[in-house]
Amino acid sequence: MKTIVFCDFDGTITVKETFEAILKQFAPEVSAQLMPEMYARRLTLREGVRQILESIPSARYGDIIEFTRGQPIRDGLIELLDFLEFQGIPLVVVSGGLRGMVEVVLGELVNRVYNIHAVDLDTSGEYLKVTSKYEGETELMAKVQVIEEYEVENAIAIGDSLTDLNMALHAPVVFARDRLAKYLDEHQKSYIPWNDFFDVQNYLAKLWKLSS
């Protein structure tokens, strides 16, 4: 495919950082210890998120899914999907969070996105066990691996935080907000600031009109 939009989920599609809230709610002590280390990049996401998730009893998984149900979606997502479908361009959700969390929040919109890549959980044991097809050296969800699997010519990345940094450094066009924008400033990587998906749609409409 020539162009694909790769969109983060947590804090990007959702208004709030849902996955971070889950970790704090269901593993408060471990999260308080490890989250500052991850954001300071002294501890990898792969190590930190795995330790936090695998400290949670499997019996709490149902509570985790219910905790995420009804989380508000950022304005303009449906309109962006309409716009991309008209252009024949797929949107792929790439989340460092949980697949079940992504699916329950998106609801019927699951059928509107081209694909979902997220972290899976094995709940058969006493504690949650993390499984990820795209586990990397420092990430449970190595988003660059996902992008490369599609062999896309023009990758467009949309994100908001540390889990999106490698994807943003890899993609030629990046929409960044919140922590991700600050990390990209440190790396002197250019990006387009955005607040909602209407901003993304408007920018892409102008970009593609100019390049057509």
How would the blueprint of this fold be written?
Elements lengths: L2 E5 L10 H9 L1 H12 L5 H9 L7 H8 L8 H11 L3 E8 H8 L8 E8 L6 E3 L11 H7 L4 E6 L5 H6 L2 E4 L1 H9 L5 E2 L3 H15 L1
Parallel strand pairs: 1-2, 1-5, 2-3, 5-6, 6-7
Antiparallel strand pairs: 3-4
Helix pairs in contact: 1-2, 2-3, 5-10
Give descriptors for this structure.
alpha/beta, 212 residues, globular, 7-stranded mixed beta sheet
Give a verbal description of the structure.
With 212 residues, the chain is of the alpha/beta class. It has helices at 18-26, 28-39, 45-53, 61-68, 77-87, 99-106, 143-149, 165-170, 178-186, 197-211, and strands at residues 3-7, 91-98, 115-122, 129-131, 154-159, 173-176, 192-193. α1 crosses α2 (28-39) and α2 packs antiparallel against α3 (45-53). It is globular. The two termini are 17 Å apart.
What is the H/E order?
A: EHHHHHEHEEHEHEHEH
Largest sheet: 7 strands, mixed
* Termini separation: 17 Å
Strands across the major sheet, in which order?
4-3-2-1-5-6-7
Strand content: 15-25%
SSE-based structural type: alpha/beta
Number of strands: 7
Summarize the structure.
Helix content is 44%, strand content 17%. It has 212 residues and is α/β, with parallel strands linked by helices. Helix 1 packs across helix 2, helix 2 runs antiparallel to helix 3 and helix 5 runs parallel beside helix 10.
